[in-house]
Design goal:
The complex is a heterodimer of chains A (about 170) and B (about 240). Chain A is α/β, with parallel strands linked by helices and about 170 residues long. Chain A is built from 6 helices and 5 strands; from the N terminus they run βααααβαβββα. The longest helix of chain A is centred in the middle third of the chain and has 13 residues. The two termini of chain A are about 15 Å apart. Chain B is globular and about 40 Å long. The relative contact order of chain B is 0.15. The interface between A and B is medium-sized, with 21 and 28 residues.
Amino acid sequence: MGIGVRAEDIYIPTFLDLFNLRFGHSLSRDPASPNYGGIAEIAALQREFQIFRGGRPFVETARLLGLGGIANDPAKNWWFEQLAKLPHFASDTSENGDERIVNALIANLARDQPLPCSMRAHDGREMDASRVIVSENATPLFFFDYRNYLTISLPMRPSTGSATQAGSSGH
Amino acid sequence: MATDPAELPVVGTDHDAGFGSVYSAVDAYYSKRITEFGPIPLGVDWTCLPTQQMRFVQLLKLCDFGSPFSLNDLGCGYGALIDYLDWRHDNAEIDYLGVDLSDTMIRAARDLRQDRRKISFEVGTRSPRVADYSVASGVFNIQVHESREVWESLVARTLEDLYGTSRLGFAVNFVTAGRGGTLDSHGLYGTDPPKWEDYCHSAFGAKTRVIDGYGLSEFTLLAWRREPGTLSARTGSGLLQ
């Protein structure tokens, strides 16, 4: 279970990076600095417009923020189709995968100092791994001298793979 | 409310003189964007709708929505401000004029909003009418290939135009260059608040307010006339006598 990835879906890392750049740490906390932005920008948009809200699927806000990029429409549309399936995914809580992401972002962005966010993938072929996993005490970008990130991990697998096949191949 | 353009004195047929090539370069830049992306935020070089609308939020802090008013929108693009006004100020009575130097933009704006009352669009580098308020979003950001000196001359000219065509006040935004810094990379013009706030004080005697801290690497400058509808000696264009 998880997002089935085809060999031609080579833009997935780009899509993850689009999220990570917009939601990453701000290089400055000074609004007068040209380096101001990142999660500070998203938090400001959330305060003003509630871009994330209960009942609004994550994919809708991803579209609103342009997280599908501008270079490749078929790839972008495919990515949004996958994100639209998140309500059918389980998560590491009782929420479905979509609710888990949206609610975690809402809670994070309501903080005085929101954590920067990182989106990544994990191997959805692993047993019990076909869930969206969100963690707050992670340092996915350990090479930055920075505090914790809110990490969102999406289950992914080869589109031809299955949990059984994965298990038999040692994954 | 708006002044009939026929009542306006002639400002001078050489208004664009000295900046013709700059306006042409800006026109080419934005006409290419709207042609490539269509009437969406990317078509006017914003990353997405929320950041585009966040700028409108700040700019419109200029206006008193408690009574009807006229509004000039310089650099209106495809008229995205109208969508925002429809969304958040649906009950406001606003006489809107969008002005853009790109004919391609204005055609897109007109196509989207045919048969709307009190909404019109004109191609130009300044408003042909006096309105209560004027706003200009993002018009100073892309300095194309111009030198900082030339671009800042254009900024000053545009601010004078905005002041001269606004009965109550105007609002603009700038990319921030940091305190004391500059950001002339990639054709982007960056500046710091005191420079143009001081200019509005000295050139127009305007009351000003700078807004920042809204999540974007920029600031918004609001400027109000101290005495609505009167001229400062410095500008002296006679527009608002």
